[in-house]
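Consider the tokenized backbone below.
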């Protein structure tokens, strides 16, 4: 969930909404030898941030490091917009939390968070079934704009429960729409990955069952999307305008030694390596892959990790959300949120 540099690739064809079974499989160089103990070289131990003083967190998601604030934002995804549903800010200088003010008068259960090129907060509202933009400057006074809520038109079926989101440096927004926590009333569009262009046009990138984590390569030329129930991650080329090309299967969990289940969140370091949180008790780790899909090692987490982001002054502190706590650890290579 971040803002990534703009791709400089030539224009590619827009991806057709074909069955994923027909997609190509990634073909790369032979896989490098993985560490004998399975650990990711150079990663430090995961330690928990302080517990909140106002009561326990319920279900944490959407970590986002905001360099302009030198702070971490994350969502407490409380079902059905419960009273404790908030976006929180953690200030590492004082090791304390505050609630991020939003224009809604009642609690709103958000999930994925990002910041657009103008510094405005982008959030997926899970139970409301919306993608929104929140102005954070004093002049706008927290103005909220709904960017997407229905497909294929304003009078079409509602989105399900928008999950994760990422923003490219040119303003293109990509988000996943799964049915985890969906509002049970009315008709809903099929689950899918969507794009909101810099001009505000909503388009479908890919129809996909249970889409969850989403991320961009460092140059903004590749989009990564995971499906938690399928335990797979795909990559899609992006052209200069932000349109997507054909999806290619990058990671098939069934073939990953040591287990790979419920790929929830994805973050990417400056060399293009993917850090995929496995939100499953049988794995409880962040599994790291190179851009060709070869496993580089694992970062164990005490509890099931839901998502991750790079942060800190040198962008080498990784923050990881779990169900009830946020963890931090040091990594050898910096990355973007």
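A designed sequence for it:
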């Amino acid at each position: 969930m971040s803002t990534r540099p703009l791709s400089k690739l030539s224009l590619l064809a827009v991806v057709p909404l074909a069955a994923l079974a027909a997609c190509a499989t990634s073909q790369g160089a032979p896989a490098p030898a993985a560490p004998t103990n399975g650990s990711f070289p150079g990663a430090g131990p995961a330690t928990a941030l302080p517990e909140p003083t106002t009561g326990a967190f319920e279900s944490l998601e959407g970590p986002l490091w905001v360099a302009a604030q030198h702070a971490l934002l994350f969502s407490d995804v409380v079902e059905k917009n419960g009273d404790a549903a908030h976006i929180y800010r953690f200030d590492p200088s004082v090791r304390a939390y505050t609630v991020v003010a939003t224009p809604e008068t009642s609690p709103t259960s958000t999930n994925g968070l990002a910041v657009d090129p103008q510094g405005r907060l982008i959030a997926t509202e899970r139970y409301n079934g919306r993608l929104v933009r929140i102005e954070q400057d004093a002049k706008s006074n927290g103005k909220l704009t709904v960017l997407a809520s229905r497909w294929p038109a304003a009078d079409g079926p509602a989105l399900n429960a928008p999950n994760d989101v990422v923003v490219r440096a040119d303003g293109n927004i990509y988000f996943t729409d799964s049915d985890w926590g969906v509002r049970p009333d009315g008709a809903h569009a099929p689950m899918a990955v969507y794009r909101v262009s810099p001009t505000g046009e909503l388009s479908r990138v890919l129809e996909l069952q249970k889409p969850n984590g989403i991320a961009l390569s460092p140059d903004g030329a590749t989009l990564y999307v995971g499906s938690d129930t399928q335990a797979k991650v795909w990559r899609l080329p992006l052209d200069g305008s932000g349109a997507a090309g054909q999806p290619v299967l990058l990671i098939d969990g069934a073939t990953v030694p040591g287990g790979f289940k419920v790929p929830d969140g994805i973050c990417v370091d400056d060399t293009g390596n993917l850090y995929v949180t496995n939100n499953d008790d049988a794995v409880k780790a962040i599994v790291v892959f190179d851009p060709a899909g070869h496993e580089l090692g694992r970062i164990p987490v005490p509890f099931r990790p839901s998502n991750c982001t790079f942060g800190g002054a040198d962008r080498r502190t990784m923050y990881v959300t779990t169900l009830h706590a946020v963890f931090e650890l040091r990594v050898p290579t910096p990355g973007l949120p």
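Confidence is low (pLDDT under 50) at residues 6-36.
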